[in-house]
Amino acid sequence: MLLPVAAVGCAVFLVGTPTMAAGRQGDPRNGKHETSAQKASSGPPAPLIAIVSIADQHIDVYGPDHRIARSRVSTGKSGNDTPTGVFSILQRSRYHESNLYSNAPMPFMQRLTWSGIALHEGHVPGYRASHGCIRLPGGFASSLWKMARIGTRVVVSPRGVKPVGFAHAGLPSPLPTVQPHSAEIVRVATAADELPAEKPRALSPYDAAQLRLAQAIAAKTTTEKAVKPALEQSVRKSAEANQSAAALKASAGILADAEEHLELEKLAMYTVQTEAAEAAIRTRINIATAGVEAARAAHEKLIAIEATARVEAFAAARAAREAQIAAEKAVEELSLARKAVSPISLFVSRKTGQVHVRQGFHLLYETTVSIADPDKPLGTHVYTAVEPVGASEMRWVVVSVPTNGAEPRDRRKDDRSHGSAGQSSASEALDRIALPADVKRLMGERLWPGASIIVSDFGLGETGEGTDFVILTR
Fold first, then answer.
1. CB neighbour list of residue 149: distance below 8 Å, 6 or more residues apart
2. What's the pLDDT tens digit per position in 111-166?
3. How far is the CA of 69 from the CAs of 60, 72, 110, in angstroms?
4. Half-sphere exposure (CA, 13 Å, Cβ side) for 421?
């Protein structure tokens, strides 16, 4: 259910990796553009950045190099304003109906909050008219649907801004992962081959994530296949142990009967009165003694059989349980591996003094962070990795989001220093933040185009599993 949320007017900035269905060549006016990064045979899709200005009532969609599409929008009207802040697409529905507003159709719905804000096709009159959602013209709603996907970053600002190129020593760089050997299956070499030992290879963070995913898929298949035979073996061994236990119990009864019979024969010796009777009783005693010895030998043999069967049954049960646990862990690892191929996101909150790291809507890490002059505003800035430069560098852009329509601090100074409004404050914000070493390492190990760092004076809004970062800046 999409519910209205009262908030101030806004602009929306989307950052995400488009699906393969998104156009990458041709006329930029059609939302199609190919970058050098996308020409490579492997690697993540290039991120998109889209800005929707509430003041101007339009959306601009940027690729890593320049703007590729523009359209009109209609955002929340007074009393039902579209909230400002940083979001991501949480849910998508090609055909959606509002269960709050008389089943009103909301085609190409892309949810931004669980409390009811979304992008969707709707009437666009040229001014603010929605109940809080961002209405898109039909043709553009379909195009944006093809370009965006779950996790696409949405940043909401009071007015139109644009991403600008950005560099700073505080931004992380990709950290290659060294693999001890190739992941491919190769023929076992013989002594005659005289092949050199395979050298360790370094994988980019994205390639390492893809390798982890491939290994997780293979492990899930292997471990799940092992469960059924392990369970069947456990059932067989349990039945054999039960049979051995039943045979041992019956054998114990036979031995007890034989021993009792021998004792009765021995007692009969006290009643004999003739040598002939004594000889007959001794014969019966000998026969009973032989019977006891045979029963005892059989019983001791069954004791050994039952002990072995019991040990084997316990081992088979343990193996079955271990196979089930391995399969469960493989399923869990596959879930994490699938999340780990999504762009990583980091959020620093001046309000809480914490840093949060998430990937694929999954919390990886959070801890306190050191911020210089903590009483001084940082502003709200979204830094996005857009393209690798070599093996160990990344090209970044930044969008500085104004709060409540205010002009960026020292705007004229920013223009003189960097040629774009907001860039100096974006640099100053990073200058004041000292990320922990383990956070830097985690970012570097999972850094590829689409990764983002968010810095804000505000704290988290909606949070938990199933979301990235929701940061309301009103």
1. 16, 17, 18, 19, 89, 92
2. 888 888 898 999 999 999 988 898 999 999 999 999 988 888 877 778 888 899 99
3. 6, 11, 18
4. 12
42 φ, ψ (degrees, to nearest 5): -140, 170
Rounded to whole angstroms, the Cα distance separating 287 from 268 reads 14
β-bridge mates for residue 401, sequence order: 380
- C-alpha–C-alpha distance, residues 142 and 22, integer Å: 11
Radius of gyration of the chain (CA): 36
Write out the two tokens for 259.
């021993």
Asked if pLDDT for residue 167 goes beyond 50, the answer is yes
Residue 259's contacts (CB-CB under 8 Å, 6 or more residues apart) are: 292, 295
* CB atoms closer than 10 angstroms to residue 125: 11
Virtual torsion, Cα 283, 287, 292, 295, nearest 10 deg:
180
Pairing of strands 344-349, 452-456: parallel
Distances (CA, A) of 453 to 48, 141, 209, 338: 15, 27, 19, 21
Sheet holding 118-121, edge to edge: 91-93, 109-111, 118-121, 134-136
> Shortest CA distance to 220 belongs to which of 330, 332, 340?
330
Residues β-bridged to residue 74: 135
> Are 59 and 50 within 8 A, CB to CB?
yes
